Amino acid sequence: MKNILVTGGAGFIGSNFVQYILDHSDIIRVVNLDLLTYAGNLANLKGCENDERYHFVRGDIRDRELLKQLFSEYEIDTVVHFAAESHVDRSITEPEIFLSTNVLGTQALLDVAKDSWKIEPDNKYSREYREAVRFLQVSTDEVYGALGKEGMFTEVTPMAPNSPYSASKASADMVVRAYHNTFGLPINITRCSNNYGPYQFPEKLIPLMIHNAQNDKSLPVYGDGMQVRDWLHVKDHCAAIWTVLQKGRIGEVYNVGGNNEKANIEIVKLILKQLGKPESLIEYVQDRPGHDRRYAIDNTKITTELGWQPEYTFEQGIEETIEWYLQNSEWVENVTSGDYLQYYELMYN
Ligand code: NAD
Ligand code: TYD
Asked: What global pTM score does this model have?
């Protein structure tokens, strides 16, 4: 692993990952390909700008000519594919872009990786690839659908996505699997639970609630607030991806969870408590259509096979995260001005 292409590296998890590999590895080159949609922000990458191993390219994962050029110019041998439309609520109002970016974008990347890495690209029967190449698809536990009170998702849980977002991620995972089975492309898929931590765009639960509480705005809790998510600190997620790249068996799926199941309302109350704000700010609003009741991840495969473990407890992680948002008010102000205000009006008023 020398030259790594990170797609969506200006988003929340991607930017944390770019910083993580520059800090933790002797990788030669990190090329960050990002379209800079509303969710992409170069301010997330300030710490990397002076590292000569880091290269930023603004572009679309659906642009095959650009992809071919990047694979050849930077001699890419590893792809970590984060780029996606990632917000469930947006997928309910605008599903088309989710299918276009998440499914067709993934397929474009797979095609270019296959043709660049295959020893005999024109021979459809050949399954030989250059040494040590790998395509890692960053996916989500949401592809498995919803759980009741009991049970956990394992890697063999059948996919049953319920939102246009999770359906697009499940479709992309299927295409990645097919490129492995049909063409022998060396792949891994990771499916993680809800991430939290620095640089998350305040349309997702935790940063949105911190932002509203800080500004004494109401905190919109969907339905009864008893939906359960498993929370994974973004740094633990980055470490898990790095572990899979180094030790994961080719062709395998690995679930990644934080062992932190919480009901949404618990998190909202915790945020209010830590910020010293009253619970009267909570406003129960109409539930999200098709809202998945519970997600929970069984980590057994990645912990026993690859030795990865989440290190953050939720209590430590949420405290640090709240502190980060308090200390980085300029970052928050920049991302919540302009288009964000329109988005907020549309979704919540
Ligand atoms: P994000 O929305 O913060 O970032 C997505 C990034 O992709 C942005 O920088 C955006 O500019 C870029 N992008 C979008 N369309 C693009 C295109 N066509 N070409 C190039 N770049 C494009 O997302 P995130 O929360 O960092 O999630 C990253 C990945 O992890 C996604 O694939 C998501 O499905 C997955 N995931 C996220 C979570 C979570 O809790 N955030 C949980 C499970 C899985
Ligand atoms: P979100 O952060 O959008 O992640 P996901 O839908 O991918 O799990 O939402 C996390 C949970 O919080 C989910 O059950 C929906 C709920 N939620 C609210 O109650 N209010 C909100 O304003 C948002 C954004 C989410």
From this structure: 0.98
Task: Pick the residue whose CA is nearest to atom 3 on ligand 2.
Answer: 204
- How far from chain centre, in Å, is Cα 157? 20
DSSP string, 135-150: EEEEEEGGGG----SS
Give the chain's length: 349
The yes-or-no verdict on residue 21 having pLDDT over 90 is: yes
Q: Is 141 a catalytic residue?
A: yes
Query: pLDDT > 70: what percent of the chain?
Result: 100
Q: If you measure from the C-alpha of residue 102 to the centroid of ligand 1, how many angstroms do you get, rounded to a whole number? A: 9
274-302, pLDDT tens digit by residue?
999 999 999 999 999 999 999 999 999 99
Decide: helix, strand or coil at residue 175: helix
Amino acid type, 325: Y
Structure tokens given for 203: 């349309």
Beta bridge partners of 58: 34
- Tell me the C-alpha distance between 161 and 28, whole Å: 38
Q: Is 23 a catalytic residue?
A: no
Residues whose beta carbon lies within 6 Å of some atom of ligand 2: 88, 194, 204-205, 208, 220-222, 227, 229, 264, 288
Say yes or no: CB of residue 99 within 6 Å of ligand 1. Answer: no
77, 85, 89, 141: the catalytic one is 141
Count other Cβ atoms within 10 Å, centred on residue 289: 10
Q: How far apart are CA 58 and CA 47, in angstroms?
A: 18
pLDDT in tens, 115-131: 999 999 999 999 999 99
Domains, the chain, in order of start with CATH, read 2-348 (3.40.50.720)
> What tokens does 100 get?
């276009």
With a 6 Å cutoff on the Cβ, whether 195 touches ligand 1 is yes
- The residue type of 101 is T
What is the residue-wise DSSP string for 275-289? HT--GGGEEEEPPPT
Q: What are phi and psi of 173, to 5 degrees?
A: -60, -40
Mutate which of 230, 264, 268 for ligand 2? The one with the most ligand atoms within 8 Å of its CB, which is 264
